[in-house]
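Notes taken during the Thursday session

The instructor put the following on the board and asked us to keep it in front of us for the whole hour. The protein is NAD(P)H-dependent oxidoreductase. We were told not to look anything up and to reason only from what is written here. First, the residues (210 in total):
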Amino acid sequence: MSLLEDLNWRYATKKMNGQAVPQDKVDYIVEAARLAPSSSGLQPYRLFVISNKELLEKIQPIAFDQAQITDGSHLLVWAAWDGYSHNSISEVFEKTTSERGIPKETMDDYKTRLWGMYEPLGNEWHATHAAKQAYISFGLAIAAAAEQKVDATPMEGFNNQALDELLGFAEKGLKSVVILPLGYREESGDWLLNLKKYRTPKDEFVTEIK
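Then, after some discussion, the predicted structure tokens were revealed:
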């Protein structure tokens, strides 16, 4: 199937049947998330893949008791850096130059310009910018799940602070941004399954400027 057919197939699954998603499919979705583009290649976020049932039961009330948390197979949690620093940017660039086999000084001028732009913008801007990068990864994971015929439910409806505390994110310099349960639809109990997909018509959504 084409990507467009896969995206037409998917929807925000409301009821999952508890069936486990095969590990190779989870790995595929996670790898798509890892390969996502990010501003300056910094990847200022981390992905947590949770399948521990006891932990998922603790997360469910934090996510307003949404059943997909525990009825699903895995929960993906994107956590963004809580801010940028000269050191965090330098560490990424040093790893990049090492992997590419080029002198680490190669990116020094760019690093200096980048930090010169970021530093005065403050931590609130930093955290928001990092979260935006996480959403790019999140979007690709949703598309990859659709390609693998794995159901996924995008969720912003959870208590970020409580989830951060439960998973110890503050100590890691992270803040939770968005979560994605993976699983398989329960066709007999999902009210959204048979409703027609609606998106804004192309002639309203797209403006072509030639």
